[in-house]
Task: structure prediction
Amino acid sequence: MEIQVLPLSEADKKPKFTDETNLVFGRTFTDRMLLIEWKAGTGWGDARIKKYEPFVLEPAALVFHYAQEIFEGLKAYRWEDGSIALFRPEMNARRFNHSADRLCMPEMPEELFLKGIEQLVSLERDWVPGAVGTSLYIRPAMIAVEPVVGVKPSDHYYFFVILSPVGAYYPKGFKPVRIMVEDEYVRAAPGGTGEAKTGGNYASSLKAGLKAKKKGFDQVLWLDGVEKRYVEEVGAMNMFFAYGNKVVTAPIGGTILNGVTRDSVLQLSRSLGFEVEERKIDIHDLMRDIESGKVTEAFGSGTAAVITPVGELCYKDDCLEIGGGGVGALTQKLYDTLTGIQWGKVADTFGWIKKIS
Ligand SMILES: *Cc1c(COP(=O)(O)O)cnc(C)c1O
Result:
C-alpha cells in the first residue's frame, strides 16, 4: 500500500525545541502524523502522512463509550554519526496485533505498521534529538470511530502514529525508586485484558497510582487478581529480582504485558552468564528473601526508562530496602548495555537495531 504524503505549509511547521536536555516526556509533538483507516468491507486504505492536528469525531464514536482502543510505544535513537535507529520495532508490530485480536480490532499488516513508522520518522528526522539520553518517542494507536451507541466491534477504525521528542530519563544519573505493593486494587485477572496494551487497563490503574503517590511512593507493584499473592508487574514496567547470579521475573501468561525490554533483559542476562527464571513469585517469599539479603537487586524494564532500579519495596506495613537502596552491578550493566546498543555505542550482536533510511 502506498502512503500518500500530504504537503506541509510553512505555517504548519512548529518551532523546534531549543533545549534538547529539557524536553518533558509526552508534551511536545512533531509536525506530522500517520493516519490509516480501516473500514468493514474494504479493509485498510487511505494511508496518509499529514499535518499533526485534531481529529474530528462524532461524540457517539465507539472509542469514547466502550474503550475499544489499543496502543504501542517505541523509540527512535539518534546515533553520533547522525543516523537514526529503531529498537526491535517488529516486536511492537507483533504485539500490536496481539492486542488488536483481544479487542476484536482488525489486524494491521506488520509490513505496513513498520513501513508507516519508518516513513514518518524519516520525514520528521529533524525532530529526533541528539543530546545524550534523548530520543524520539513513537506512539502508534488504533481507535474505534464508528458513531453508534451500542456495544459491538466498530466497522471503522483509525490507526495513527504520533511522535514526541523526549529528554533523558535520568539526566543526573540513576535514581532508585520506591515502590508500594498494591494489596487492594488489581490491574488484571486471568481471562481479562492484562496482556493487551489497551487504554482501559491504564484508566483502571489510576486510583492505585494516586494512592501510592499520596503515600510518597513512585509506583505500584501489582499482585495477581485472584489471590493477591503473586507479583505481576509495575505501572508500565516488567519487574525483575536478582538473587545473586540468578534473575527472576514473573511469567507471561495472559495478565502481564509481554515487554520488548523484558525480552531483551532476559536474552542479555543469559548472554552475561546469569541464570534466568520465569516463575511465579510469592510476595511473602519475596519479602522474606529481601529481608534475609538473598534478593540482591530489583529493577523494572520498559521502553520509557529502559531500566529502573528499585531501592525500596513496601508491602502492607513492611518496608524493606533492596541491595542497600543503591544501584546494583547487574542493573547498571543491563542499563549500560541496552542503551549502548540503542545509541550505537555497543555492538548489536542480537540483531535488534533497524536503521531508518
Ligand atoms: C508497555 C508496558 C510495559 C513495557 O513494555 P516495553 O515493550 O518493554 O516497553 C510493561 N508493562 C505494561 C503494563 C506496559 O504497558
Notes: Residues 156 and 356 are 31 Å apart (CA to CA). The chain has two domains: 4-166, 177-342. The longest strand covers residues 156-166.
